[in-house]
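Q: Protein A?
A:
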Amino acid sequence: MTSRFTELTVDCLDPERLAAFWSQVLDFKVIDRTDDKVEIASWEPTVEDIRARQMPPTVQFIRVPESRTTKNRLHLDVSPIDAGTEEEVARLLTLGATTVDVGQGPDRNWVVMADPEGNEFCVLRTLAPR
């Protein structure tokens, strides 16, 4: 017996806003939507594909009534694939991200940011060809 990692769920106040932000960050598209949930992905999941092999998870944004109150215990890391890290950080700032200090110190090769609702994520080293 085994399971597959199929969805990452983010509790939030505004699913549409966060789905739009993360769709632009990751180049994903909306694959499902209800009044209280928006799901984005890089592919259209099917049961057959999921059973056959591990596929990238989708990301769901679920409306909850309360705001985030403490540092995330789980966060996303993203790696730029066609620009440098500094250029990607600048792009994400224009999309509504902010840089944050969670005690990471100045001598790190990643940048800690937060999405429009304050959920932390890291921009790691670039994977762009040199």
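Q: Protein B?
A:
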Amino acid sequence: MANSVQTDAAALVAMLSERVAVNVRLALVADAQQWQLHHAQVTLDDDVPLKERAWRYSTATFLELRLPGPTVAALLRGDEQDIHGIRIVSPGPSPSSASTHRLRGQEEWDRVTTPWPRTERTITRDTNAPSPATACWSGTATLS
């Protein structure tokens, strides 16, 4: 069974800043003349390079990349970043808390089962913060 606690999002930003590179999956939505980060999944401690993939549509873009940890940390802080030729903005204020789920090996979480234990962190921006409806941000980090 998962063990869930609240944690400080700043600790996750610091952890990402120390990583040389992390695997990411990003979902972006078009808002006026910019691309806003809608969802991010970040995998730490996975040294297997991803095959870069991108799907681009008129109002949505999906990216699967290996990025420098400080770049992903900057997105989490709310800093604009140029990634894969796209200027990405992270909407709303930076999140202050995250939930942490510690799982045993062979335990399913978010449709993923691994043979080793892992820690997953989920960060969600305050839904009461003023931002466009399409600008909800959430992220998951997996430590293997």
